[in-house]
């Protein structure tokens, strides 16, 4: 009788373990890719089994790597995931993270990887060999992380290294989807304002909207209900961009500073010109 009970208990434990394994497989985070080939869903296991998966080591020039080159990645070429024939009006790769960060990356930047430019990879976290936890967090950058080899070849920005990726889509450019981002017509001839717009789209839009335009939801809208230049002086904005913790802090603060190697002084000045131009145009419309 005791042997039967022991066997039954062992069988029950085996079933419980199997059930837990099945549930873990069912709960595995999936990556959604919307491309010229339609919308597809991949688990980490799916991507790790692809024939084009490679081991990727990043060099010291890859300044955007959250792990500072301490991790050897298993990764799939991003271009391969996007398909070979994107529709002409889709000129942007939108990468959405689970934390509300949304990077808008020009498709041409990704395509340069085939022409001796920076090479974009989607790194996949192997459950058997998990990545380290992120600084001040318990979770890693996985299960999916967009990384770049030789980013200096194409001027890849730190904000174009999104991690905790949940969705990758081929879309129209930010200005096409959100016309309110565009440089106001009366500033169209101002090269500084135009440059500031470009800085905003690369460095800011991943977290901040402008007058409701944008997909990022990490930080506040910089255009409404009041433009940020209406409640921050330029000196305060410069300080906030460089080191937000020296300006103000709060428990849920997530913004980190942008040093001169990420946003040069000239680009900060151009960004301020863009913000002021957007505020001026909004006030003109209100009048």
Summarize the structure.
31% of the residues lie in helices and 17% in strands. The chain is α+β, with helices and mostly antiparallel strands and 287 residues long.
How would you characterize the overall build of this protein?
The protein is an alpha+beta fold. The protein has 2 domains: 28-172, Sulfite Oxidase, Chain A, domain 2; 176-286, Cytochrome c-like domain (Cytochrome Bc1 Complex, Chain D, domain 2). Helices cover 31% and strands 17% of the residues. The protein contains 8 helices and 9 strands. The protein has helices spanning 2-26, 44-48, 78-82, 107-111, 174-177, 191-204, 234-242, 265-286; strands at residues 30-35, 38-43, 54-56, 73-77, 92-97, 102-106, 119-124, 144-149, 165-171. It has a 5-stranded mixed beta sheet with strand order 2-1-9-5-6. A 4-stranded antiparallel beta sheet has the order 3-4-7-8. Helix 6 (191-204) packs across helix 8 (265-286). The chain is globular, with a radius of gyration of 23 Å. The model is unreliable at 5-26 (pLDDT under 50).
Query: How much helical structure, as a percent, in the residues?
Result: 25-40%
- Tell me, rounded to a whole number, the average pLDDT: 88
Series of H and E elements: HEEHEEHEEHEEEHHHH
Shape: globular
Give start-end ranges of low-pLDDT stretches.
5-26
Radius of gyration in whole Å, from Cα?
A: 23 Å
Strand line-up in the sheet with most strands = 2-1-9-5-6
CATH topology of the largest domain: Sulfite Oxidase, Chain A, domain 2
Strand share of the residues? 15-25%
Summarize the main sheet: 5 strands, mixed
Q: How far apart, in Å, are the first and last alpha carbons?
A: 90 Å
* CATH architecture assignment of the largest domain: Alpha-Beta Complex
Work out the helix count.
Answer: 8
Question: Quick one: CATH superfamily of the largest domain?
Answer: Oxidoreductase, molybdopterin-binding domain
* Backbone structural class: alpha+beta
What is the total tally of β strands? Answer: 9
Domain tally: 2
The top-level CATH class of the largest domain is: Alpha Beta
């Amino acid at each position: 009788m005791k042997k039967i009970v022991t066997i039954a208990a062992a069988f029950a434990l085996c079933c419980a373990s199997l059930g837990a394994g099945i549930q873990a497989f069912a709960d595995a985070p999936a990556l959604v890719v919307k491309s010229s080939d339609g919308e597809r869903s991949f688990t980490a296991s799916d991507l790790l089994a692809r024939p084009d998966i490679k081991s990727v080591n990043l060099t010291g020039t890859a300044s955007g790597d959250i792990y500072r080159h301490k991790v050897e990645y298993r990764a799939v070429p991003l271009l391969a995931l996007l398909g070979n024939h994107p529709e002409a009006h889709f000129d942007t790769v939108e990468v959405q993270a689970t934390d509300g960060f949304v990077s808008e990356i020009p498709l041409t930047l990704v395509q340069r990887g085939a022409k001796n430019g920076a090479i974009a990879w989607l790194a996949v976290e192997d459950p058997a060999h998990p990545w380290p936890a992120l600084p001040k967090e318990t979770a890693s950058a996985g299960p999916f992380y967009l990384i770049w080899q030789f980013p200096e070849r194409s001027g890849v920005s730190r904000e174009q290294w999104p991690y905790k990726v949940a969705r990758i889509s081929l879309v129209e450019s930010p200005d096409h989807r959100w016309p309110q981002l565009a440089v106001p017509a009366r500033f169209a001839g101002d090269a500084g304002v135009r440059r500031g717009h470009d800085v905003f789209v690369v460095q800011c839009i991943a977290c901040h909207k402008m007058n409701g335009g944008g997909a990022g939801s990490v930080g506040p809208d910089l255009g409404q209900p009041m433009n940020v230049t209406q409640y921050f002086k330029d000196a305060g904005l410069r300080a906030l961009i460089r080191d937000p913790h020296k300006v103000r802090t709060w428990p849920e603060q997530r913004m980190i500073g942008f040093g001169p190697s990420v946003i040069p002084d000239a680009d900060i000045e151009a960004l301020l010109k863009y913000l002021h131009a957007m505020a001026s145009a909004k006030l003109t419309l209100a009048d």
